[in-house]
Amino acid sequence: MHIESPKTTVNKSREELFHFLSDIKNFETLMPENTSMFEILSENKFAFALKGMPEITLELKEKNEFDRIVLGSGSSKLSFTLTANIRAIEADKSEVCLVFEGDFNAMMGMMIKGPITSFIGTLTENMGKL
């Protein structure tokens, strides 16, 4: 399953946005309003839950300085990544696009496509407000 958010302009330099997203504590400020739980598990891992959805654990998997940050599932039961692609627009503006890649069976894919699309849309929208 491949889901891509719309590109969003952020009033931060590429480097500032990269450092902001590299600190997983900052994801709490990007979460949707219907977040019922957010917990830092380690320096590179956090868990969250949205109302009516199971808890999800995300772990920082890869950082390509100033261009890309990859978060992945913190659970061996699910296989997915959430990648933030960052591009400089101006000295103090950047553009970000979130890409979700997951390996799910057809039934699971149908059930989660809507909520995942909404979730990454909210994350990028909230980044645009930074």
Automatic annotation (TrEMBL):
SUPFAM superfamilies per record: Bet v1-like (SSF55961)
Annotated InterPro entries: START-like_dom_sf
Name this polypeptide is given: SRPBCC family protein
Species classification: Bacteria, Pseudomonadati, Bacteroidota, Flavobacteriia, Flavobacteriales
